Amino acid sequence: MRAIIFLGGLAMAAGFVLTWLEAPFAGPEVSPLMLLREGMISLGSDTSWQVWVFLGGFLLAALAALVALRGAGAGLLALLAGASPLVVLGDAVIRAEDLRRDLGLPFPVDFGDISRSWALLEDFIRLGFWAYAGGAVLLLVAGMSVVLGPRR
What we know:
- The chain is mainly alpha-helical.
- Helix content is about 65%, strand content about 0%.
- It contains 7 helices and no strands.
- It has helices spanning about 1-15, 30-35, 50-70, 75-95, 95-105, 115-120, 125-150.
- Helix 1 crosses helix 3 and helix 1 (about 1-15) packs antiparallel against helix 7 (about 125-150).
């Protein structure tokens, strides 16, 4: 299980610097690091909890990978890191229309029609998103297995 946590944590943490979106009309490649560097995400006392959970997930993933590499139990770190995208996504689904308005998107955000939403994005998604999502799934499953699984 330690190897899975290490690989999942490494993948999710690497997603911080890798390109997530590369749209021809949007200009630069989008990654969480670029969002921080360009000031689109700022850290401070007025930062929303969603930003802290999103960025904290990368840190927890890296910590889970390091702890797993050292041979110690990283189950709780893995579980928290793997759950962080679900928390942010759940909030985004609840506040979808507000997000669309705040971001100034010219199209409606309808999470009820997942296929249409996916069709809008699938050509622009790059490796960083897949590393983040795949790493999060591995960490979530491994973390649940360690934390919630039967004790030996």
